[in-house]
Input
Amino acid sequence: MSEAGFEYRTYTGKKIAMMGAGIIICLISFILDIMIGSSNLSLSSVFTSLFNSSEADSLTNVIIWKLRLPTAVMGILVGASLGLSGAAMQTILNNPLASPYTLGISAGAGVGASIALLTGLGSLAVLGSFLIPLSAFVFAFLACLGIYLISKIKRFTPETMVLSGIGMVFFFQALQSFLQYTASPEALQSIVFWTFGSLQKANWTNIPIIAVVFLIVFVIVYTHAWKLTAMKLGDEKAKALGIDVERLRMVMFIMISLLTATAVAFVGSIGFIGIVGPHIARILLGEDQRYYLPMSSICGAAILSIASVATKLVVPGAVFPIGILTSMIGVPFFFILIIKKKR
Amino acid sequence: MIEVKNLSFRYEKDPIIEDISFCARPGEITAVVGANGAGKTTLLKCIAGLEKGTGTVNICGKDTGKLSRSKISKLLSYLDQSTDCSAELNVYEVILLGRLQQLSFKVSDEDIERVDEVMEMMSLTQFADRRISELSGGQRQLVFIAQTLIKNPQILILDEPTSALDLNHQFKIMEFLKSVTKEKHYTTLLTLHHLDIAAKYADHVVVINDRKVYTEDSPDKVFTEKMLRDVYEVNAEIYVDSMNDKHIVALGSV
Output
């Protein structure tokens, strides 16, 4: 093996090590997320409750298993989902500014949730907690369907997808404004709070749904990792390498839509992660999608989990919408990475 | 061997190439030349299976009209004109992608050896860990040529492989393509704008004019003052030097 070949192997090893470091950061943040709250818990009591709950006191068990663990797990899952969706979206559109939010998927979900809140569906006993995410999911998927149908006519060119996505954003934002304009003050408050995004909606019913959807989408997207890497060279070159570019773009779009719509439906709009998670992964590891896709998930999960910890530190004892803080914390960090990036 | 028979292509209602037939043989460089907009790139795309025209294209005896894109890409390597690339990939990774059809999740030792060999052949080793987006247009063109060579194709189709290169590199890359074509018995089909280069390195020249084949033959017979007037609308003089190479001196528009 030549020196260049050896360096390639070393470079690959470094990427795997960085992914390992990312996972450790996620784990630390995850544990802190469980420890920190209105009543702080010690590390040992957290571990006892997690791995040997019969020996932990019942109050600690309730705090961890009913309150903290669901939000901590949801933070990791939603962050990973948004990171993966953003990475795949930026790759298929060959546009680093693309994210599931720039294509109106989140705006669609907002309208769906608002309709459920306005019509009183969300206040129904038992069913209410399911109808809001269901309605959000349906409208998020309607936004995707609109983009899909328009893009299909133009053979899934990135330009058509971005333009139809921007159209969707404006359309659903207008609908959202109309709904807010006609809403009662109480309903308006619920709508605004929903759109902030919050992990407090996590429970042991919606977590497995997101987990399964994430796993399925991750496996499907990841099996196309080499082809997605080749797509970064541009459509012409990817086609010359034997890739059916339009079909791949369509399949990826369906996967991204499914994952984003599911995540957003349960936690509301948490912006920024879908753009910045992949950016950080790109700066650290480049765009070999075998590493870029999982690293984008890891970065997304880490950002959301750290933001969740930070919300508790910033406003102790109160529920602060995490969607606000993800941008506040992430943006300065993101700027540092851009400035430090090698030319 | 590439056999093109009665190949035509329309973009919506506009004909781009019409009734084109010719053969490109193994061990030879076949150059397609013609004025801007003559249909050279479309012709190459149709042959490479990237556009669907009417007529037949046989590659190594197989009708490409009946093959999927991935099967066609196993038979040939195609280089498009563009040298733009903003991907955050290094040169080593870009060249490796030429073996896309063979790559499994873990890059094999064989893949690594092949990349090393091609980089060595094309003197690209020094750029191995450089980001492709940081290279000049000419350097990127060399990297993409290396990418087409990595899968050891029987058929090499190159659209303007020298367009971004300086004079020295134009000669170097054509020398390299000439020797690799002979040595490995590749069928090399390329388009060229620089007629001196085509006259010096091509074994066979196909001249496209007004969407059709104007003439095809060896460079000696193809490059005439009449052809240059008819196809390029220039008055030109042709000199033969002591090495028996033809040189074209354009004197001005007709």
About this structure: Chain B has a mean pLDDT of 91. The CA atoms of residues 92 and 227 of chain B lie 43 Å apart. The two ends of chain B are 38 Å apart (CA to CA).
